Amino acid sequence: ASAEATEAILEVAKHEQAGLLAIATHGAPRGATSPFGTVSEAVIRQCPCPLLVMRTGVHVDPPTGAPHVLC
């Protein structure tokens, strides 16, 4: 399932010619070598554009006048 999710995310980023991709991660299980989940880690390694990764459960208000972001 994670390979399919990774491919779908990367395909949309390429198709839409994304200037920035924003994704959320729940984090990796204890003892993992990466602080990210499986899908996030794969997207980080293969993403064709700049990437913003945030932990789930974190709320950030966008700055005033920020451009529309599709997540």
Describe the protein's architecture and organization.
By secondary structure, this protein is α+β, with helices and mostly antiparallel strands. It has helices spanning 2-15, 38-46, and strands at residues 21-25, 51-55. Strands 1-2 form a two-stranded parallel sheet.
Short description:
The chain is about 30% helix and about 15% strand. It has about 70 residues and is an alpha+beta fold.
Q: What percent strand?
A: 5-15%
Note the overall shape: flat
Lateral arrangement of strands in the main beta sheet: 1-2
Low-confidence stretches: none
Tell me the Rg in angstroms: 13 Å
Strand segment count: 2
Instruction: Give the helix/strand class.
Output: alpha+beta
Spatial separation of the terminal alpha carbons: 20 Å
Helix content: 25-40%
Number of helices: 2
Please summarize the sheet with the most strands: 2 strands, parallel
Order of helices and strands: HEHE
Mean pLDDT: 82
